[in-house]
Amino acid sequence: MAKKRLFALRGAVFCLNSREDIEKQVVEMYDELLSRNKLDTEDLVSVVFSVTADLNAINPATALRGKGRAAETALFVTQEAHFQDSPERVIRVLLHCYMDKEAAPVHVYRNGAETLRPDRSPT
What pTM value is reported for the model? Predict the structure, then answer.
């Protein structure tokens, strides 16, 4: 562990309110976070999701586990606070993991959520 430190990776995705789309979008966002940051599941500490109130077809943690991901990782889900002009149909993620001290974290915004953080989205 001496060559690693704790990082927090961010991400978000817009979804339709269907079980199938939430499963698809959450799994693709999770897989991309791991792939782009060269992470193994052993590097993960926890995954926290926030979900806008209009997405209630399935819990994103349930969707992730149901697709065989994050079996040994602590998962948590909370409802996103609603503010005036807040976007709808958004699932956000905060993934805590260990990476090399010199690593440059790559955050993942997909399926239109790139507009939420254009400074963190690749061009």
Answer: 0.91
